[in-house]
Amino acid sequence: MVSYVTKVILQSLQLLLVLLKTDVQSHILMQNPPGLPSIVVTWLVCGLRGTRFIIDWHNYGYTIMALSHGPDHLIVRLAQWYEQLFGRFSSHNLCVTNSMKEDLQNNWNIK
């Protein structure tokens, strides 16, 4: 668990530095998954720069994690909470299927 937390912190810092070094754009499009740690880092940079944040939802990262850890594992539950909370902070959302769109709207209040 400690190595996973360390990995997420290092990836967050790397992504933050890369995004801050790039030219300011009107929009940033991020694919999910992988959303950990990119959703919150991208949202933060977009907020600092006045950039619109778009998430392209292909799946839920926590469901992929559940395949190897089980659905009740602490890290899976934290990943679900993280995606659900920070996914709402996007300016716009794209979905690969209508069922994904409906699930985001009905279960996570993401439009």
Automatic annotation (TrEMBL):
Main location: endoplasmic reticulum
Cellular compartments annotated: Endoplasmic reticulum membrane
Gene Ontology, cellular component aspect: endoplasmic reticulum membrane
Membrane topology recorded in Swiss-Prot or TrEMBL: Single-pass membrane protein
Signal peptide region: none
Pathway: Protein modification; protein glycosylation
Alphabetized SUPFAM superfamilies for the sequence: UDP-Glycosyltransferase/glycogen phosphorylase
Single annotated GO MF: mannosyltransferase activity
InterPro entries reported in the protein's UniProt record: ALG1-like
Tree of life domain: Eukaryota
UniProt entry keywords in alphabetical sequence: Endoplasmic reticulum, Glycosyltransferase, Membrane, Transferase, Transmembrane, Transmembrane helix
PANTHER family named among the record's database cross-references: BETA1,4 MANNOSYLTRANSFERASE, CHITOBIOSYLDIPHOSPHODOLICHOL BETA-MANNOSYLTRANSFERASE
UniProt-recorded name of the protein: ALG1 chitobiosyldiphosphodolichol beta-mannosyltransferase
Gene source species: Hucho hucho
